[in-house]
Amino acid sequence: MPERTVRHPKVRVLIPTGLGLNCEIETAEGFRLVGAKPDCVPLLDILNRRIERRLLDYHILAFVGGFAFGDHLGAGFVYANKIRWKIYDRILEFIEAGGLIIGICNGFQMMVRLGMLPGFDGDYRTPSVALAPNDRLGYRDAWIQLVADDKSPCLWTRGLHKIELPARHGEGKFVAGSQDILQKLEENHQIPLRYADDLGQPTQVWPNNPNGSAAAVAGICDPTGRVFGLMPHPDAYLYPFQHPQWSRRRYSGESAVEEGGLSIFRNGVAAVSDRLTSATPATPVSSSHGVD
What we know:
The chain is globular, with a radius of gyration of 18 Å. The strands form two sheets. A nine-stranded mixed β-sheet has the order 2-1-3-4-11-10-9-6-7. The longest helix is centred in the last third of the chain and has 17 residues, at 262-278. By secondary structure, it is α/β, with parallel strands linked by helices. The chain contains eight helices and eleven strands.
């Protein structure tokens, strides 16, 4: 079982749900386990501004996995357009105010279609990367190994070295619009997680790299490290016994009781908590001046 953690009652998380999204319960549980207070709110209520709290009243926005609007026109396509024309200005204000965002699988696909990532030079509107159909076509669901970049600014992956997570998608191949974009991601250390082989080295080889992503990219962040998207599912590995090798490792003495995906949620909440703790009255951290 994950160890009990210090509660962070001030850290509020908004999780859009419905319309094909289907990982909100696991994602909310991940945030609850590390002490935050998640609110699962129907996406239509958010798009139509029918929620009591304003976006800037939250500290974290979590876009979960699933198949929003059925992905009939491509993964995250309709989802991104709904966000773009309904509430994207408010989300950009949320980022500017210091909010954290995580997008998992379908959420990540939607974020890159919006141009929210990679966010070069504060530009969150221009798409420059994509998540294309896997090299081996079809939906693949398997556990994969990831290696973290300890020089990345990503707040969500601080302290991580290696981690195993389930990956389950048919459109997860990371493609950059140009070699210059990929090089800039590399130079800025905006690739916090990569698919790795059994030796912990980034790999292009299937099945360790399940989709053929360029540079073994499993996730990217913006230059601030606050906005992060990844294809594997940290929400699907919250407890040690969820790992398929948990029992064998447990009794063989291997270090298998790692936190798994919970460490990613813990890092995000800790980053907000640190900011709330260190904030002065002259440095507002949540909205007392709404955007509606």
